[in-house]
User: Fold this.
Amino acid sequence: MSTKPSHHQRLTHQRRLVLEIIENSQEHPDAEAILLQARARDARISLATVYRALAFLKEAGLVQEHSLGQGHGHFEVAQSTPHYHFTCKQCARVIEFSAPEVIDIVRGLGEERGLQVTDVHLLLSGICDRCRSSQPALPHLADGSSHP
Amino acid sequence: MSTKPSHHQRLTHQRRLVLEIIENSQEHPDAEAILLQARARDARISLATVYRALAFLKEAGLVQEHSLGQGHGHFEVAQSTPHYHFTCKQCARVIEFSAPEVIDIVRGLGEERGLQVTDVHLLLSGICDRCRSSQPALPHLADGSSHP
DNA sequence: GTCCATGCAAACTGTTTGCACGCGC
DNA sequence: GCGCGTGCAAACAGTTTGCATGGAC
Assistant:
């Protein structure tokens, strides 16, 4: 959304800092992680400010929030090409992938049902390649019946 | 040998009650909604019990939890045919849809990347058909790209 | 009698908010 | 100066947990 800033100061030091941290992160940091990194560069920044900056940046369309199945939000810079996420249940690693077919499916559904779809999240979880291979041949992890 | 499970009483009155409520619900109730309905039939059931019952039923594979973009869990009976969810940002209505193509995409990705995918959530949000038509032409809710 | 499940309240996590101060314009 | 943005702490929502009691076998 590109409304012109009819009000005064918008992109403050702290907000810029939060944005930079997200931009420079290969991960998908959560608010706590962002706070930690922010504190390394500005000891007095508070968690509330991080959340407010995140809200601001989301509203500005610069940052997106994703729920990656861990009960709290994760953040990344808004990207023009849609992409989706796989979360490893074992090591919590997040792998991004693109799947262009998805938007076609979604578009079809939208038209079929009269829905105006503005957000699409395809979230996979399971065991990532690394964890699978470092694992002493477990027979059937697929059903998730037991374990830590 | 003993056909009994190694542990004793499993499917108690309260757990059955929670399960029935979810089964009979066309909606996707959250814990609070389940508590309310449960209280109508057993005044002394507690929220903690609801949560413990939900954990038990999930573990038993009878119930699934979904994050529908509202910051808290929603529950439904586990279904054999996978399906996905659209949440209306305006009226919070949840619409289910199936999209068989999705599992193919996911299967492809899994093989390609060596991931073992156990869970797939495709979550859409936007404006539902009802809200769109009952809407007196709102100026800028309709930016097709991303976001609020 | 043995355990597990329950109820209650308190703890906990992630996030939001009220209020007074403070910085940038 | 003025107003928005900040920091702090308290409030909040959703969920989990410790502990003593109660129920089903």
